[in-house]
Amino acid sequence: MKWNEVGSQACSVARTLAVVGDRWTPLLLREAFGGATRFEEFLEGVGASRAIVSERLVKLVEDGVLDREPYQDNPPRYTYSLTQKGLDLLPVLLTLQEWGDRWLDDGKGPPFPLVHSACGKRTHARLHCTHCNQPLGLEIEGRPRPGSWARDRKRTRRPLRPSRRRA
Fold it and tell me: 96-118: per-residue pLDDT in tens?
């Protein structure tokens, strides 16, 4: 399968990666969540070439993650803002940040610790069951619907267990 066909799979992870699965798009989203609204702000914050930033912003608008509104006619310039679809990616980015803080901090601690504005305390991204509020971990399971990628696979599902070796 080619990368440009991954979004056609009956798999939510594959479809999501078709929207945000390159190295620059999550960084553009990080900048949008940090308040960037103009092309130059995204360009400065991400550090990619103008062509890459422009291409990714166009794709995020096409995918409905960002809205684009003109603020100047000559030359044409736009502001970008997160749509509800884009805002719903916040837990994804926070979870990626949390993973990086834990595993890739070079022993120096998180470069940008999360602080809950309402109480002023340091916090962490966590996933909880929407019914019992217990933390989600390896005890969750997917129950594939007919036609999904998991239903079509020929292997048996085994329980997940972490390795005993620490990275």
Answer: 999 999 999 888 988 888 999 99
Query: Judging by DSSP bridges, how do beta strands 66-72 and 77-82 pair with one another?
Result: antiparallel
Does 160 map to a domain? no
DSSP helix, strand, coil percent of the chain (3-state; round to 5): 40, 10, 50
Reported pTM: 0.82
Give the Cα separation of 52 and 80 in Å (integer). Answer: 16
Does residue 13 belong to any structural domain of this protein? yes
Residue-number span of the structural domain to which 30 is assigned: 3-88
Q: Would you say 113 and 123 are in contact if contact means Cβ atoms under 8 Å apart? A: no
CATH number at residue 47: 1.10.10.10
Number of structural domains (the chain) is 1
pLDDT tens-digit series, residues 2-27: 656 665 566 788 888 889 999 999 99
